[in-house]
Amino acid sequence: MPIRHRLPRFFISSCVFCILSCATGASTRTQYFVLDKEVILGRLQEAPRKDTDREVELGKMFRAVGCQPTEQPVKGLRQPNVICILRGTSDSVILVGAHFDHVNEGDGIIDDWSGVSLLPSLYQSLGGTSRAHTLVFVGFGGEEQGMVGSEFYVKRLTPEQRKNIVAMVNLECLGVTPTKVWVSHSEPLLMNILWGVAQSLQLPLSGVNVEKVGTTDSESFAHYKIPRITIHSITQETWPLLHSKGDNIKAIQDNLYYDSYKLIAAYLAVLDQQLATSNPGQPKPEVK
Ligand SMILES: [Zn+2]
Fold first, then answer.
1. How far is the CA of 24 from the centre of ligand 1 (A)?
2. Residue 171, Cα to own-chain centre: how many angstroms?
3. Which residues of the chain have pLDDT under 70?
């Protein structure tokens, strides 16, 4: 059920200049914005009931943070993928994905409004400063029908565009427990950087494999050998909440969800600094 309570959208609490000791051990100055907890939770609470409305709401949230999203019609789906691009100084891409569709059982807040409603906030957190990589935020449709939106997206890229994606960061089912990473299905380098950021910020992170529970959009990219990482919060105890009536706003622990947001925002800023780019200083007009 959507909650109509609306919160100011442009409120940024602080501009953070963090000194992070990352995976390399070197101290690096990393710049990103940290949004207020109320903003992050407000966007989570604005989940409409129907997928059609979720797609519209996601587009609205992107526009509210200053991004004009593109809609990519997907063969076999009623809703398009919703894409928002933060251009960097190279055509190397860090892609951040989550899915806006959900099953009929439950409200689909955990799976995966918790992930997809973070995308506009992450756009906002990473914007306002020059980035080496182009950050592409994608709200996928049809994940529950078998990763239809993400498979379509990656399939229609050219081989060169696929090669340009240096990381696919998949956000799936956040806020139920402290942040987890799907170790067996994530690239070691991407995980090492995440561990380093978690340690620096003293935010919780542990590894939980979820292949026995199901699969997710990151695997559409893995199929093309694109480095990927899935960040989630599912454990042995909490996975029965998925696709059940228990998947509702009450299942989210506000502090843990906000911790995940803070970790992911910092992580994307550090990834941008640490991953190599193809052509620094040569922005390209067309990146999808
Ligand atoms: Zn999901």
1. 32
2. 4
3. 1-28, 279-288
Assigned CATH topology for domain 12-274: Aminopeptidase (3.40.630)
Distance 242 CA to ligand 1 centre (A): 8
Ligand 1 centroid–CA 140 distance in Å is 10
Contact (CB, 8 A) for 72 and 81: yes
Contact indicator for 272, 133 with CB cutoff of 8 Å = yes
- Ligand 1 centroid to Cα of residue 35, in Å, is 24
For tokens 């409603």, the residue is 117
- Compute the distance from residue 263 Cα to the ligand 1 centre, in Å: 20
Place of tokens 């029908």: 145
For residue range 19-38, list pLDDT tens digits in order: 343 334 445 589 999 999 99
Q: Where are the domains of the chain?
A: 12-274
pLDDT score, position 32: 96
- Ligand 1: centre distance to CA 105 (Å): 13
Residue 248, classified by CB atoms within 10 Å of its CB into exposed (0-12), middle (13-18) or buried (19+), is middle
Cα–Cα distance between 24 and 271 in angstroms, integer?
12
Q: What is the pLDDT of residue 279?
A: 61
d(CA 123, CA 190): 20
CA of 102 to the centre of ligand 1 (A): 7
Q: Ligand 1 centroid to 188 CA: how many Å?
A: 22
If residue 181 lies in a helix (H) or strand (E), which one and from where to where?
strand 180-181
